[in-house]
């Protein structure tokens, strides 16, 4: 019995000793981790929570338990609340214990967003106020204070204390780092680990102050962010983010050193990419809303029209992307009711963009006033204006395409309005500013006007089938004609206009209205000499404007009659080439041959399949022997025309050389 009792006593003693040893070891391990807390105090909250959870499992004790043990050791009496009463702190303890308790409480605040922990951290560190010369204590003192300012939403105090953290701690450590160069082993811990302090200050300003608390007007802190750009080295830290922000603080896409604007712009861009890559329907709305939130923040924080133009250009591009996916019946978006209102909501963006453009296009601004609007260079001003124009124009085109895709083949008056309205809005804007050859009107504005006119012409032509009013036929004709004037290479548009006018019994009106257009191209100096001084991937399409296009305009009825015999199997480029070949052949034959010979030749050519065959082979198979040599001798008869590629490139690209060609053609005739 005595032996049994002795065994129980020994078991209890050893067990208690083992438990005490484990607890002591856990405290020691937390001590070591808290001493280097600056290495992870800049982590995102979720990452910090995961770290503390992992350490709890590893140490067998949570950080909160560690704090309770330290608090009990460093205070007298029992705490009635979680808030530590600084009057209860005892003296005569190792100062490091107060230091660790303060830092540990702060880490709990960062992980849980409980302000009680922050107050405990501040009050505990006051015990060490006499040691503020120590860089470690000064660092945490000012960091605690800046977070306290954030909690109070006190912008001025936050800026003041952030600068104190920067100037009184970090810059002094940088000086020590320089002084101790070559004596790495002698450097203090904080000097050796300066890069972690940079991460902390980046996290403080960018994530905590601007992104989470959305505190405005933090532009004075831009100098700090710029200063640390090349000093960040942590692989998964703020280096890339800071580089992107600094880039957005300068240059064309900036609001001239506006830190808030730059952070919101970068965050909007990052969230947009996340939205575009998202494959889960359940997450799309939240990711869209997050993206929109930062675009709206950047817009509200822009201090200059330059900044407004920059953010609106990209914001409208984002809206364009979403509407394009809706138009293409993307299942992820189209199946979600939330996104169906976005095309209409984008009107607000267009309205804002037009207002900024109106402001920046004033004559005084164009002359020298652009400097007061945020631009330091004239070419940056012009580029921003052209980008703003293009982005708003593309959004209007996409709006119309979306409404067209959701409409029936016989749109009622309401549906017709929503389809035509964006196109008419663009043409109105175009006519308002394109009356004079101004630098603020981009080169691609003219092709886009042709595109809008063609779309309107097709829309009105479709609607005219169900209308008893001739006015809609007149609208269709006028817009189709305008499209030809603006983009003469579009042979299909010319032939369509002629065919539809003929079907309506208005051939005379077609000839009367198109005659001056054809004459302009025949006499055009631009069409004659442009290729001599410009390079393009589509020279064949440009070269025919001077001679072939006017003939196609004049002979369109004749060509349509034969092209209808093609059987509808030709591609757009194939039909385009066939129309040019037939026109060139017609021009050669009408000099000496009868109408019957010409009609038989064109009819035979129209029935041929051009795909994969040379013109010599086609002529040999379709023309009488006496015409083959004549046909083969026609200059340029073998050329091919990549019209579909040209058309697509002109829509998507703003810097294609042919945009300038269309511009010069447009202004060749004085505008009244």
If you had to describe this structure to a student in words, what would you say it looks like?
This protein is an all-alpha fold and about 675 residues long. About 70% of the residues lie in helices and about 0% in strands. It is built from 32 helices and no strands. The protein has helices at about 1-35, 45-60, 65-75, 95-110, 115-125, 135-150, 155-180, 190, 195-210, 220-230, 240-250, 260-275, 280-300, 305-325, 330-335, 340-360, 365, 380-405, 415-435, 445-465, 470-485, 490-505, 505-525, 525-535, 540-555, 555-565, 570-590, 595-605, 615-620, 625-630, 645-650, 655-670. Helix 24 packs antiparallel against helix 32 (about 655-670). The N and C termini lie far apart (about 120 Å). Mean pLDDT is about 90; it is low at about 5-15.
β-sheet strand percentage: under 5%
Structural class: mainly alpha
| Computed CA radius of gyration, to the nearest angstrom | 37 Å
The best one-word shape is elongated
- Counting H and I runs of at least 4 residues, what is the number of helices? 32
Distance between the termini: 121 Å
Biggest β-sheet, characterized?
Answer: none
Mean pLDDT rating: 92
Contiguous runs where pLDDT drops below 50 for at least 5 residues:
6-16
Residue share in helix: over 70%
Give me the count of strands.
Answer: 0
């Amino acid at each position: 019995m005595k032996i049994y009792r002795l065994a129980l006593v020994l078991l209890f003693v050893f067990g208690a000793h083992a438990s005490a040893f484990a607890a002591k070891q856990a405290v020691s391990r937390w001590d070591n981790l808290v001493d280097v807390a600056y290495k992870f105090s800049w982590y995102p909250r979720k990452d910090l929570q995961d770290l503390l959870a992992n350490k709890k499992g590893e140490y067998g004790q949570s950080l909160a338990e560690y704090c309770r043990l330290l608090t009990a050791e460093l205070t007298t009496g029992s705490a009635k609340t979680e808030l530590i009463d600084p009057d209860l702190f005892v003296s005569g303890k190792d100062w490091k214990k107060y230091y660790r308790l303060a830092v540990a409480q702060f880490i709990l605040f960062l992980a849980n967003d409980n302000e009680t922990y922050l107050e405990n951290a501040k009050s505990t560190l006051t015990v060490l106020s006499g040691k503020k010369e120590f860089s470690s204590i000064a660092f945490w003192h000012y960091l605690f204070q800046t977070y306290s300012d954030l909690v109070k939403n006190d912008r001025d105090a936050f800026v003041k204390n952030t600068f104190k953290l920067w100037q009184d701690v970090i810059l002094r450590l940088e000086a020590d780092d320089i002084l101790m160069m070559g004596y790495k082993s002698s450097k203090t811990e904080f000097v050796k680990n300066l890069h972690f302090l940079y991460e902390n200050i980046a996290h403080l300003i960018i994530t905590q102050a601007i992104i989470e608390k959305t505190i405005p007007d933090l532009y004075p802190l831009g100098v700090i962010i710029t200063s640390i750009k090349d000093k960040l080295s942590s692989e998964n830290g703020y280096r890339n983010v800071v580089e992107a922000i600094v880039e957005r603080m300068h240059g064309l896409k900036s609001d001239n050193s506006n830190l808030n604007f730059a952070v919101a712009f970068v965050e909007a861009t990052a969230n947009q990419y996340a939205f575009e890559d998202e494959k889960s329907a359940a997450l799309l709305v939240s990711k869209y809303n997050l993206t929109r939130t930062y675009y709206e923040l950047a817009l509200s924080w822009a201090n200059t029209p330059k900044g407004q133009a920059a953010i609106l250009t990209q914001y409208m591009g984002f809206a364009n992307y979403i509407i394009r996916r809706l138009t293409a019946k993307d299942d992820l978006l189209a199946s979600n009711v939330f996104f169906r209102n976005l095309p209409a909501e984008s009107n607000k963006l267009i309205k804002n963009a037009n207002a900024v453009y109106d402001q920046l296009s004033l004559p005084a601004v164009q002359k020298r006033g652009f400097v007061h609007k945020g631009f330091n260079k004239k070419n940056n001003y012009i580029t921003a204006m052209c980008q703003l124009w293009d982005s708003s124009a593309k959004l209007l085109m996409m709006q119309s395409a979306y409404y067209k895709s959701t409409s029936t083949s016989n749109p009622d008056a309401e549906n017709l309005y929503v389809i035509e309205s964006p196109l008419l809005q663009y043409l109105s804007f175009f006519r308002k500013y394109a009356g004079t050859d101004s630098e603020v009107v981009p080169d691609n504005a003219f092709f886009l006007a042709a595109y809008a006119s063609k779309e309107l012409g097709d829309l009105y032509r479709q609607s005219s089938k169900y209308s008893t009013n001739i006015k809609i036929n007149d609208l269709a004709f006028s817009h189709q004609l305008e499209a030809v004037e603006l983009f003469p290479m579009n042979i299909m548009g010319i032939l369509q206009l002629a065919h539809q006018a003929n079907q309506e019994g208005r051939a005379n009106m077609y000839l009367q209205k198109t005659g001056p257009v054809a004459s302009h191209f025949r006499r055009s100096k631009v069409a004659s000499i442009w290729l001599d001084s410009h390079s393009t991937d589509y020279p064949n399409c440009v070269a025919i404007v001077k001679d072939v296009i006017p003939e196609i305009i004049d002979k369109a009825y004749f060509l349509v009659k034969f092209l209808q015999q093609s059987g509808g199997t030709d591609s757009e480029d194939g039909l385009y080439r066939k129309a040019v070949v037939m026109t060139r052949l017609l021009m050669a034959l009408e000099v000496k041959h009868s109408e019957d010979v010409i009609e038989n030749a064109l009819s035979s050519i129209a029935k041929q399949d051009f795909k994969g065959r040379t013109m010599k082979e086609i002529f040999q198979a379709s023309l009488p022997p006496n015409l083959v040599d004549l046909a083969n001798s026609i200059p340029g008869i073998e050329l091919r025309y990549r019209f579909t590629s040209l058309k697509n490139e002109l829509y998507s690209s703003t810097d294609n050389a042919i945009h300038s060609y269309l511009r010069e053609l447009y202004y060749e005739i004085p505008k009244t």
